[in-house]
Design brief:
single chain, 55 residues, little secondary structure, Pectate Lyase C-like, globular
């Protein structure tokens, strides 16, 4: 999945599998990532101010 530079501000991605996704430069500010699988995802340059990732 290519989500590079995507604006995911306030997105609810809880429980979504983003395994191997390209999130380079994506805006994840205040996105809900609880339970999201980010294994091998490219998060380089992704914007996550105050971001919290938990499993």
């Amino acid at each position: 999945v290519n989500l590079s530079s995507a604006n995911l501000h306030l997105a609810d991605l809880s429980g979504v599998s983003l395994k191997g996704a390209n999130l380079r430069g994506a805006n994840l500010h205040e996105a809900n990532l609880r339970g999201t699988s980010l294994k091998e995802a490219n998060l380089r340059e992704a914007m996550m101010p105050d971001g919290k990732i938990s499993d």
